[in-house]
Amino acid sequence: MAQPKRGYHKLAILMASESDAAIFRRFSKLNYLTLLALQAELLTLEAEYDSQWATDEQATNTERAKFAVDFKALRASKLCVKPDPEKPGTEQWKLLMDIRAKLNTYNEILLQVAQVHALKEPEKSKLDFLQSWLVMKDMGAGQIEGREGLAWDDPSDLLALASVAPDTAPFSNWATGRFLTFFHYVWGYKHNSHSREINPEAGPDLAHYEETVLVKYTRYVITILASLLPIVCIVILWAVHSVGWRLGIMAIFTAAFASILVVFTSAKEVEIFASTAAFAAVEVVFIGSALAGNSTGG
């Protein structure tokens, strides 16, 4: 019988089966500290090189004075084993080579840090799942101990290797997070409503749900609400004859419309403002038409 996996081996199986769980530390502080240390070393080397260049510029030896205008002469200076103040020496060339090596390291790490920094933070629902998995009895069971077990405690210093969905609405986040977890254990897993099972070695009763399908259903809900709200508003405004009540109802529905946009969509502030203004304009036109009709009828 195969030995059951545990600890990091079990976690690796989970990440391989469910890429959304591939969440790692960004180590921002350590990355920046490394860059700062290299930057400090380069600044020192730069100062030493400038000083050596100035010394060579002022040398009475014509070969050393040529270093600033003739790199061939500077390269040739490295052949001099025993530097002499009045003869071509290796100091400037050696410093230049030290700078080149250090600069290559600095640039390489700088680009790596930039790439790491560009990776997005994990979605809250995915991080919640991983954190729960790490401590649940039949899954991670808290087997990663000590400081290593705290690696996923600071969300601000975590990154997701899997592609992160663009900013979604709070309702979609809730539907694909807490609600999905509830649905999975109450109905989904028992009735095979999931897209595929996750490797059972990662833990029992784990399954993957395609988010595109879930988002599609949440969009159905949003579309229905968006279609019904203006109609319901107009019907109520038509049924109410008091101008004061109409204005109050208009304010309530306008606020409700804006709230729905915030909760159910990922619209930006300017888009919410424009849509709410358009909705309010429709209400104003209806109230104005109703008032004009009442005046004519009177």
What can you see in these coordinates?
With 298 residues, this protein is mainly alpha-helical. Among the domains are: 28-118; 213-297, no CATH class. Helices cover 63% and strands 3% of the residues. It has 11 helices and 4 strands; from the N terminus they run H-E-H-H-H-H-H-E-H-H-E-E-H-H-H. The protein has helices spanning 7-17, 28-57, 62-65, 71-76, 91-118, 124-135, 170-175, 178-188, 211-239, 243-264, 269-297; strands at 23-25, 158-160, 196-197, 207-208. The strands form 2 sheets. It has a two-stranded antiparallel ribbon with strand order 1-2. Strands 3-4 form a two-stranded antiparallel ribbon. Helix 2 (28-57) runs antiparallel to helix 5 (91-118) and helix 9 (211-239) runs parallel beside helix 11 (269-297). The longest helix is centred in the N-terminal third of the chain and has 30 residues, at 28-57. The radius of gyration is 33 Å and the shape is elongated. The model has no long low-confidence stretch (mean pLDDT 78).
Physical arrangement of strands within the biggest beta sheet: 1-2
Q: Total strand count, please?
A: 4
Please count the helical segments. 11
Return the string of H and E elements: HEHHHHHEHHEEHHH
Fraction of residues in helices? 55-70%
Low-confidence stretches: none
Q: What fraction of the residues are assigned to beta strands by DSSP?
A: under 5%
Largest beta-sheet characterization: 2 strands, antiparallel
Measure the end-to-end span: 91 Å
